[in-house]
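Q: Given only this backbone (216 positions), what sequence would you predict?
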């Protein structure tokens, strides 16, 4: 009697590669083409649910546009491999949609594969020094730019967060006004500002937004 053993197939990650020149792209394609973890697609077309590796010398306007073009919706992820990073480039790369950022000098095939796998899972990969640099830049932006204006990265002020917390507790407009010593008109204006600025439908949607972003 013949025994058949079923072997589970490993799901390979579809990877497209974009570079500023053909030779650079061909070099990375050659490095990754035979790796069992990924499937390198022909050309530089974005694959739904896949990962795009963007190779660049620096984070200029064309690189940012390439990252944004590859980051279509929430299905696709982008790994940026860049030669030079100026101050502020990391934050710009993240804002453009890069899930992971690697220096070109550190981008061995194994490191690129690791970054692709992490990005595909929905997480982010970054060397410790780059992560420290990003957090430092974010901290300075919050301290020097946003905080003096009473803003947070969420786009909400402290006053708006307080109002949303009270809405979440079930208080109506009059009760919120009494609790915070605001007029009813002021509370209504605050709620209107929140919903219109963040394109939220109503109070419930605003509370859901705050909960999703860990504000309340």
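A: Predicted residues:
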């Amino acid at each position: 009697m013949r025994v058949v053993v079923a072997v589970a197939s490993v799901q390979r990650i579809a990877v497209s590669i974009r570079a500023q020149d053909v030779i650079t792209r061909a070099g990375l394609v050659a490095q990754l083409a035979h790796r069992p973890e990924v499937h390198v697609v022909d050309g530089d077309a974005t694959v739904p649910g896949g990962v795009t590796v963007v190779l660049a010398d620096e984070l200029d306007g064309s690189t940012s546009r390439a990252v944004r073009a590859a980051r279509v919706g929430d299905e696709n992820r982008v790994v940026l491999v860049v030669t030079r990073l100026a101050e502020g480039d990391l934050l710009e790369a993240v804002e453009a949609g890069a899930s992971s950022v690697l220096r070109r000098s550190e981008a061995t095939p194994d490191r690129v594969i690791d970054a692709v796998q992490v990005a595909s899972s929905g997480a982010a990969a970054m060397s410790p020094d780059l992560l420290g640099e990003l957090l430092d830049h974010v901290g300075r932006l919050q301290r020097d730019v946003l905080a003096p204006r009473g803003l947070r990265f969420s786009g909400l002020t402290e006053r708006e967060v307080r109002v949303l917390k009270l809405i979440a507790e079930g208080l109506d407009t009059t009760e919120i006004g009494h609790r915070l010593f605001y007029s009813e008109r002021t509370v209504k204006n605050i709620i209107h500002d929140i919903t219109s600025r963040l394109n939220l439908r109503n109070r419930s949607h605003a509370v859901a937004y705050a909960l999703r972003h860990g504000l309340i």
